[in-house]
Amino acid sequence: MIGRLNHVAIAVPDLEAAAAQYRDTLGAKVGAPQDEPAHGVTVIFIELPNTKVELLYPLGENSPIKGFLDKNPSGGIHHICYEVEDILAARDQLRAAGARVLGDGEPKIGAHGKPVLFLHPKDFTGTLVELEQV
User: Is the model's pTM score more than 0.85?
Assistant: First the structure.
């Protein structure tokens, strides 16, 4: 079921400073900021040869990233995203195995314009897992 690693998401308290660090210090290809109102975040993708890093910044007071940054003011890894071929089949298989799908269990469109779901971190060794259909 699980495919390749799509990205690692890092919540950051200063989006521009984090983007500059990846661009100027590490020499990475840094994308433009994009607002994702349905998810309450602004994201910037860092392109790497084998995957991506997603920088997350709160979009609005109700952003889930705001709560994360309140607990982790310096930022930190927020989630890891794996690709799946069929997100509904993956969801059903995971539920049958006892994994909890967050929200209403229906995929939302993510930052790449593809369906995504999130899995409860308590079911995956403390790691919030995102699945993205490819």
Answer: yes
